Amino acid sequence: MKENPAALIPEIALVAAAVIGLLAGSWLPRRRQWVVRVLAAGACVAGLAATAAAMLDTPQRVFDGSYAVDPATNAARVIILAATLLVLCLSVDAVGGHRHETEFYVLVLLASAGAIALVGADDLLTLFAAYLLASVPSYGLVGLLRNPLGTEAALKYYLLGALLGIVMLTGTTVLVGVAGTSSYPGLRDALTGAPPAAVAFGVVAVTAGILFKIGGVPAQFWVPDAVDGASTPAAAFVSTIPKIGGLGAAWRLYTHALPAHSVDWALLAAIVAAASMTLGNLAAFGQTKVKRLLAYSTVSQVGYLLMAVTVAGRSGLAQRALWYYLAAYAVTNLGAFAVVAELPSAVTIEDYRGMARRHPALAAALAVCLLGLVGTPPTAIFVGKLEIFTATINGGYTWLAVLAVANTVASLYYYLRWLAPAFLAAPADREDAALVTAGTWSAAAAYTAAAASVALGIGAGIALPLGAGRLLP
User: For 285, phi and psi rounded to 5 degrees?
Assistant: First the structure.
């Protein structure tokens, strides 16, 4: 068995920081819980440094081949660790001094480690263990405020996760039973001669668990309630980081574990992609609460991202497009949530009326992020969508690309419904309490994310070749 724990330094750093932080937080006074936040940020920075070193090594499979340390895993590490740093930044004003501040940072670290493990898992049993590690801390994050709305959201999140977790485990059992192995390379060979019905059932059942993690149709029911009921930092986390792990897991499962002709997983992914982008957009049209609007926006974004998974193995652009879009989505979505965190009393779209006059820089950041989610140049998601649409057409799914373009145009409506009031004058008889800012950290996160979105878009000509050389095969 090739164990080599040194290959897992980023994951170990997150888990170790979570354990040390939990112990330290039990003794630190409330006014000094920020020490745990510094520890969490340090673990992310250490993980990024270790990932940079890992990019120079050759890919390897460790722990008896159950975990892969390769370009896809390294790409997930970079995106997830950087996104976790942004979440920590935008959470300072909302969580700092809270009685559960330490618990928040510990749960974020554990769930981030689980999201990375989802991508690195090269074995069905490891995949399910990563599913649990990414899920259980997330349930706690959603219900951490212990208010009625948050408690209800956490319960719905947990019940659906438990149900689809059982379905995923059932599918794992079926696939392992007919193949005689849980290793992805072993499955690819053994499933060729297995009963097609059993293989199809197992693939659909395992996919159900992955769809829960990414919030894709028909496992999206938890998304609006969890995002709306959780604190804004927790909502930002659960709507962004688990998607990165889940989509990376889907890409590896389909391309590494399934024989090319055993089951038409590409058609399955295409149908889910089409349903997710369409339902997410339709549901977002009538939303007036900004967090619920962003929740349905994340469902629609899953549809675009699943297009790259659909043509994995059919187009040479698919993998590069997937990881670039994930990086673009992470900074853009977290930037929008950072603006929400900076204005905690602005609950509805109308509450943002007059924002541009009172907070012009913050309004500019919101405009960049919302137009970025549409895919407006020169933001990063514009490049990501262009890459994914091209890969989809090259992979033979032109109808899916056409549907995605139509959904992109339609999505402009509900993003502008939020953005337009921000640049209109506030009513003379309205108090400005809704536009009172929370502090400086959330605003800094918003500005950083907006700048990163534009920089990744403008610098795509440099970033894409660099990523192809260092992160992608």
Answer: -55, -40
